[in-house]
Amino acid sequence: MQRTQIDGVPVFTAAGPQRTTAALVFGVGLRDETFATIEVTHLVEHLAMAALPRTHLRCNAVTDVDSTAFFATGRPEAVRAFLEGICRALADLPTQRLAAEAGVLQAEGCGTGSSTVSALWAARYGLTGPGLTVSAGPGPEHLPEEVVRAHAARWFVRGNAALWCHGPLPEGLRLPLAAGPRPARRVPVPRPQDGPVWTRTDAPGVGLLLATDRPDDVALAVGVDVAKDRLRERARHTRGLSYAVDSLALDLAADRREVAVVVDARTGRDAEVAALLWQTFAELCADGPTAAEVAHAVAGLEAELDEEDAAGAELADAAYCAAVGLPSRPAAATLAAWRATTPAQVTAALRRAEPTAVLAVPDTAVWDGPDPRVVRRPLCGTLPALPEGVLFRPPLHRRLLDPAARVALVVSDEGLAHRDADGDVHGIPWSRVEAVVPTDDGAGVSVVGRDLCCVLVHPDRYGRRAVAAVLDRAPAAAVLGVPASGTPELAAV
Question: What distance in Å separates the CA atoms of residue 378 and residue 382, rounded to the nearest whole number?
């Protein structure tokens, strides 16, 4: 692998096939948005791609939680035209297509929905950073041109980009991006946690989230691989409860890595799979892996690095790290570190991570948790009782006839509180309001809290005075207007 530079952008290259595969990577993704601007990065990506002429070149783009990449495979001159066209479009977005591309995003169904990994991130960070991926947000039609252009001007710049190229580097390639340094990324603050917790989510699978403050925690990576192998043997091969066991690591900073382990389950067997996941993790924390299990994990990495596309994967990792400002380790060095890792080191790494553990199970599972020392923590902010303030309730006749109407709303100078039909009380301090989104008919609002609570305040339920009281106290900057195209449904959070 060779490193060079074009127009101030780091470029990573390696010899390969006659056809060129290249990707222009930017250190910006969903984690860099807010609830009100969810999908703005994806919209910038669509606008840039829409600016290109029609082509038969194999090309595409993807916006992820942590990065955005534009990639193509073909003749070197065609790849050069693609990359240069993307750079020109990002420097001057064709915002005349804003409404059309917002519609394309809606048609694409691009809201990330409630995947298990997203639910785990949200359980840790609420509606900030990677936790934003649990929601589709208000919708791209709420994004005005000035917000989209400002996002592109801040993030899609030379200092926040890197290019990787497998095969011939196109001759004369230029990367005419706007000048600018890498923006400082906000590192989300996790919810306070004194030990392992478990929670219920509306995601379909079972998951475990672990955190480490070590920049490249090889021992934890080996431990997670061993845990996956044990769990796969127990849940799939022995008991037939699960099909897949996966993991995903996300570096939020050089000293903050989140590692998620996700397991699917047969219908109605989520509780058993959750128990197996926690049992496997707890056993490894207590007794550690065997030398044979560690050796098996190392052999798996060796096989992965021996695959045909390993060179491309190493280039992609180097470019990603350069774009987001993280240290990169060559594949050979990573393999050497895995080979040097001992069972004792793996045990120590898992024990360090145990107090950060978040175990998530579907809210349909009949389960009381793994063991008494693992505390259940609700996914969103709850209160023991309704606080003092102005009380709003549906009319008495509705409460008598409809159990779903047996709810209550309290508005105070400190915040908003809502008691749902099940008797649970959800609270949103005004300082923790992420957005106030108008309802489809424009008569009411949904108040979205950073801690995942979402309270619908509508005159049909609580009367016009309740809506007025909320709008009078909610942060003005958080109140969204009704887009010209109409207000979409707010994704559940």
Answer: 7
Burial class (CB in 10 A: 0-12, 13-18, 19+), 268: exposed
SS3 for 253? Answer: strand
pTM of whole model > 0.90? yes
486: left (phi over 0), alpha (psi -120 to 50) or beta: left
The model's confidence at residue 11, banded by pLDDT at 50, 70 and 90, is very high
Reference 234, options 196, 203, 265, 211; nearest CA is: 265
Residues 6+ apart with CB under 8 A from 360: 116, 119, 120, 123, 198, 199, 200, 201, 203, 206, 207, 208, 209
Residue 12 and residue 164 in contact, taking contact as beta carbons nearer than 8 Å: yes
- Print burial letters for 88-98: b (CB count within 10 Å at least 16), e (below 16): ebbbebebebb
Q: What whole-number distance in Å separates Cα of residue 453 and Cα of residue 160? A: 34
Q: What is the phi/psi pair of residue 110, to 5°?
A: -80, -5
Q: At 368, is the pLDDT very low, low, confident or very high (cuts 50, 70, 90)?
A: very high
Which amino acid does the sequence have at 236?
Answer: R
CB 181 within 8 A of CB 157: yes
Structure token digits, residue 15 = 């010899």
Q: What is the DSSP string of 190-224?
A: PPP-SS-EEEEESSSSEEEEEEE-STT-HHHHHHH
At a CB cut-off of 8 Å and minimum separation 6, what does 364 contact?
270
Phi and psi dihedrals of 280, rounded to 5? Answer: -65, -45
What confidence category does residue 482 fall into, taking pLDDT thresholds of 50, 70 and 90?
confident
Question: How many Å apart are CA 409 and CA 426, to the nearest integer?
Answer: 10
